[in-house]
Amino acid sequence: MYKIASTIVALVIASAGSVSAVLAQDSKKYPVVPPGARPSPNFSAGMHVGDTLYVSGQTGTDPKTQKMPENFEDEVKQCLANIAEVLHADKMDFSDVVAVQVYLTDLDLFQRMNAVYTGVFKEPRPTRTTVGVTKLAAAGAHIEITVTARK
Question: Which CATH superfamily is domain 28-150 in?
Answer without folding.
Answer: RutC-like (3.30.1330.40)
